[in-house]
Amino acid sequence: xxxxxxxxxxxxxxxxxxxxxxxxxxxxxxxxxxxxxxxxxxxxxxxxxxxxxxxxxxxxxxxxxxxxxxxxxxxxxxxxxxxxxxxxxxxxxxxxxxxxxxxxxxxxxxxxxxxxxxxxxxxxxxxxxxxxxxxxxxxxxxxxxxxxxxxxxxxxxxxxxxxxxxxxxxxxxxxxxxxxxxxxxxxxxxxxxxxxxxxxxxxxxxxxxxxxxxxxxxxxxxxxxxxxxxxxxxxxxxxxxxxxxxxxxxxxxxxxxxxxxxxxxxxxxxxxxxxxxxxxxxxxxxxxxxxxxxxxxxxxxxxxxxxxxxxxxxxxxxxxxxxxxxxxxxxxxxxxxxxxxxxxxxxxxxxxxxxxxxxxxxxxxxxxxxxxxxxxxxxxxxxxxxxxxxxxxxx
Length: 395
Prior knowledge:
It contains 15 helices and twelve strands. It has helices at about 15-20, 45-50, 60-65, 75-90, 115, 120-135, 145-155, 170-175, 190-200, 205-210, 215-220, 225-230, 260-285, 315-330, 365-380, and strands at about 5-10, 30, 45, 70-75, 95-100, 105-110, 140-145, 160-165, 250-260, 285-295, 300-310, 335-345. A five-stranded mixed beta sheet has the order 5-6-1-7-8. It has a four-stranded antiparallel beta sheet with strand order 9-12-10-11, with helices on one face. The protein has a three-stranded mixed beta sheet with strand order 3-2-4.
């Protein structure tokens, strides 16, 4: 059975996400960069900004001199990953297996889906059309028999939305005029040495490399020839790896107004921790990893995580780790605008069987019994019924 692999790429994904929410950003030059310093480097550019002569990596102040009408949006990793999860959710009903490349880019394996969804090229076109109509995310799609060729097909497309299909047997002809640096699998540290060696041998295209026999290529390049020869011929047997389903519980809070006082922020964090622990106890799962992300008012984000010695769903066990993560993240005395708390590596709790007939709550420590009592009160009377004094400022 022929494989049908799609490489879906949404260029300048964060700009596409911002434009779907703000129509004022559409059809004009937009850049992604930190806004608290003019020397910040531009991370992403829209097609309109590229046409103005800007390039990613140049300082923001120079970019604004070249393009006075440039609109700048700050990077937001939490928004970006949320949009990527939405993208995965939208394609999950079409592709039985998909693999994330980076936010806004996916491999989809459509092998064996022809009877369900029709020819793969029709499915690819439908995915592109639905992303534009529902999310306003124009995308580039490459369709081929393997991951390598489909990714190169999407990379060579000029402007979204476009779909390029490489039929079986045409891989080598499609790759022949492309330079070797188009290959995505070459390690950055070896690119310079390998490029110079290929230049010395006058092997400037993948077609030229494919025309050289493997023994001669190996004698000239050594171990890199093993994969380079197969890639030049369009051979790639690597599968589309499905994502590892690792449940995560996340709670976030927006601080309005921005806050810099440690006690107030820790109070808000403790409320998030209570919400997560309540959810864990309801699901009868414990966590082994806790992660905190803080976002400053100048759009700088800091993240820290800690592996727990044993799984738990009690606030009294997680609070010391949370405080340590907070002080590791909050080293810049710049006001905070957003807090994101996550727990993962979830598993069922290890329970000790009791020898005698006694209630479970009777053998629990006092702090644990208090947490269970708060859970019952909030379940019956609502989240606002009872709270610790440290969190009252934020209620």
